[in-house]
Every structure is written in C-alpha cells, then in structure tokens.
Write a structure and sequence with these properties.
The complex is a heterodimer of chains A (184) and B (167).
Chain A (H helix, E strand, L loop, with lengths): L1 H18 L3 H36 L2 H17 L4 H16 L2 H17 L3 H12 L7 H9 L9 H26 L2
Helix pairs in contact in A: 3-4, 4-5, 5-6, 6-8
Chain B lengths: L3 H15 L4 H35 L2 H15 L7 H6 L4 H15 L4 H11 L4 H8 L9 H24 L1
The chains are: A mainly alpha (184), B mainly alpha (167).
Chain lengths: 184, 167
C-alpha cells in the first residue's frame, strides 16, 4: 500500500505541477472533504449495525450462531480462537445478507483477534473472501435499475450470483493452495 | 427484501429481552464502538481519497482508461465499462455514481448496463477494504492477497460480460 500510494501520489502531483499547478491544493482538499462526508455516512451505517450487533453479542445470539458454524470456520481458517470465530461468522452472515456495512466492523475485530495467535493465513483469507464480494442479493444494484425504469430489474440476480461465487472461490482456492507452497 | 431489516431488529431485540440484556445501555455502547471505529478509519480514508482526487485531477485517470480500453476489449469487456472496472477497487461511492451514469446513458436493460450492474455487484472496493481491515497492523504484507483478488476480479468481469450475452 505504501508503494502504490507514493507512486500514484507523486506521479499525479508531477503531472498537475506541469499542466495546472493551482489545481493541486483544490484536489487535496476535495479528497479530505470527501473522506469526511464518507466517514459521516459510514458512521451512520456502523452506529445502526454495531448497536444491534452488540445486543446480539450480549444476549449470546452471535455466540450461538458462531458455535453452529465453528466446525466450518475452524477448518477453513485454522483457528481455535472463539472470539475470532464468532466475528468471522457474523462477518460472513452480514455479507450474505447484503449488509456489507455491518460486516466490516466484525472483520476488523476478527483480524485483531487473529493477530493474538499470529494467524496471518486466516487474516488474509478473510480479507480475500470479503474483497471478492460475497453477496446473495445485490440489493443496491437492483434498486438502482428499478429506479431507472428497468422492465426486470432483478434479472441480473443469477449472473451476479454466478460471478460473485466464481470470484470468491477462485481467489480463495488460489490463496489456500498457494500459501501451502509460498507462505503468503 | 425490505422486510428483512425490521425483522432482524425485532428478532434480535426480542431475544435480548428474553436474555435480560439492558437494551438501551448496550445499544448505546455499540454506537460508542462505532464512533471509535469510524475515527480509526478516517485517516486512511482521507489519504486514499486525496490520492484518488489527485489522480483524477491530473488527467491520468482518463489517460489510463484510454490506454486500457483496447486491452479490456480484447478480453470481451466493452470499452464503456473500462472506467467502472478501474474505479471500483478504490471507491464504492465513485463507482456507484459511475454505474448510475451508465444506466442513465444506455438505458437500464441494455447489454452495457446489465454488464455494468453484474460487474459492480460481484466486485468489491479492494484497496479500501485492505486499508480498513488492517488499520491496526500497517506492517502486514498484503501484496500477494491483493494481486490474487484483483486478478480474480478481472477474470470475473470477463465472465460477467460473457454471461450477460447469453442470459
């Protein structure tokens, strides 16, 4: 990330310095402003779902769900850490339900837990599964299409399902097989 | 679909009442965690967004789109989608706005729009996720996982354009 960031940042700045130097500060400030707006939106999403997920956690609901999924998470992520398993299960459940905003805090908690046992493999696998999108119903896209007057807004359901499954399975399989050989 | 959200809330609240959880206290405490969490990701967000704005303002983003369009076309990805495919790993809101633009320009039921919708729905904001997930662990080596995800996302885009032709 450091390398990518530095390279893109510097090259862009150099080009701006040549073509229109006064655009540089505006662009930087715009970026910061957009980040703040984005953070406000994210806070709203997190406030709703982290409030709810704390209730699920304190009432033992997420613990129960995690115990059901434990055989699966244990084998896939090679971890014995119950808190990590719980958060991984909640993360996957939220993703499948299409509430990606609620999934993120669980992933971060799981990754922090996994750090305690230095389980890099599980952390990266969880990242890969999330970064390739696991979603049953692409609600945002369907809503957007129907708002634009589509005659069958949901007809992308099957193509999306095939594609999202394909990308996740492919990336996870490559990572799991590759990490045996190269210790990624 | 809209029914899912209230049902989830009612189910969790009911269960919490049965288990005698102090609902207001815990719900607020959860929101407290949300504040901490939002603040912890804000620095990454600001840095990434500044980089994206610079990249856009320098005109390099348009140049790159122009340059890669023929390559993408070779793999069966319509050139109208090049920019969407390039923005998505960086910005969810940016690519959503772009998807909306495509749907408005080409009509929601056109081949281009359907491809764009499937590509958008089956991919994620890779760089954003990598920055947020590992916010406390800046020293993690993530090059291999990120490359795997990007390649697989690209192949999925190729597959999406193929499937949309058939289905």
């Amino acid at each position: 990330m450091n390398a990518i960031f530095t390279v893109i940042f510097l090259i862009s700045l150099t080009v701006i310095a040549v073509i229109s130097p006064d655009g540089a500060l505006t662009a930087l400030m715009n970026g910061a402003e957009k980040a703040l707006v984005m953070a406000a939106t994210l806070f709203c999403v997190y406030a709703v779902w982290m409030g709810l997920s704390r209730l699920a956690e304190k009432s033992g609901l997420s613990g129960a769900a995690a115990r059901r999924l434990k055989p699966l998470t244990k084998r896939l992520f090679k971890t014995e850490n119950d808190r990590a398993c719980e958060n991984i299960s909640m993360n996957l459940a939220c993703n499948l339900l299409g509430i990606g905003g609620a999934a993120t805090p669980h992933a971060v908690k799981a990754i922090d837990e996994l750090e305690k046992e230095e389980n890099s493999f599980a952390q990266k696998l969880l990242f890969i599964i999330n970064a390739t999108s696991v979603q049953i119903v692409p609600t945002t896209v369907i809503a957007l299409r129907s708002a634009a007057g589509s005659v069958s807004a949901a007809d992308i359901f099957f193509p999306s399902l095939i594609c999202t499954a394909f990308s996740t399975v492919l990336a996870a399989a490559v990572f799991i097989l590759g990490s045996k050989k190269w210790h990624w | 679909m809209a029914l899912v959200i209230p049902l989830i809330f009612i189910a969790v609240f009911t269960f919490a009442i049965i288990k005698k959880v102090k609902i207001y206290d815990e719900f607020s405490a959860g929101i407290g965690e949300a504040i901490k969490f939002t603040l912890s990701v804000l620095p990454c967000l600001a840095a990434i967004f500044m980089m994206c704005e610079l990249f856009e303002a320098s005109g390099l983003s348009d140049k790159l789109t122009e340059l890669l369009s023929p390559v993408f076309s070779f793999f069966g990805i319509p050139s109208e989608l090049t920019k969407l495919v390039l923005i998505k790993p960086f910005s969810g809101s940016g690519s959503l706005a772009y998807l909306n633009g495509i749907i408005e320009t080409y009509g929601p039921d056109s081949y281009i729009s359907r491809c764009a919708a499937v590509c958008f729905g089956s991919s994620e904001t890779v760089f954003y996720i990598s920055a947020v997930y590992f916010v406390g662990l800046p020293r993690k080596k993530l090059a291999a996982p990120i490359i795997i995800v990007l390649v697989s996302t690209f192949l999925t885009t190729v597959l999406a354009c193929l499937i949309c032709k058939v289905l």
